[in-house]
Amino acid sequence: MSGYWRELALKFFEKAKILRKEATIDLEHGAYNKAISASYFMVESIANAIFAYKKQKTRGFAGRANLIREILGINAYKLFLKLHEYREKSRL
């Protein structure tokens, strides 16, 4: 694996770790809408880390969701869609 893709994957993974901490803090303080958003972006960052590791490029939600389905399977895809739905509802 080239250094570029490896470094990109690690950056996404580090971002996911930060977002996980933020989601935990938000839950502890009862900020559920913020926790949903942080959780969504954490999963998105983990997915981007996997895509970078596999040297896959993606754009936008639909592209990311399709790659999740292809690489991680239908169950992960459905869970990602559900989390996206919760995030959209939390923004209202």
Topology:
Elements: H1 3-28, H2 32-53, H3 60-72, H4 74-90
Helix pairs in contact: 1-2, 2-4, 3-4
Tag the structure with descriptive keywords.
4 helices; mainly alpha; 92 residues
Could you explain how this protein is built, in words?
There is one protein chain. The chain is mainly alpha-helical and 92 residues long. It has one domain. It contains 4 helices and no strands. It starts with a helix and ends with a helix.
Structure annotation, total helices = 4
Helix content: over 70%
What's the gyration radius in Å? Answer: 14 Å
So what's the overall shape? globular
Give the CA-CA distance, first to last residue: 42 Å
Mean pLDDT: 91
Number of domains: 1
Order of helices and strands: HHHH
Poorly predicted segments: none
Number of strands: 0
**Which strand-content bin applies to the residues?**
under 5%
Largest sheet: none
- SS class: mainly alpha
Quick take:
This protein is mainly alpha-helical and 92 residues long. It has four helices and no strands.
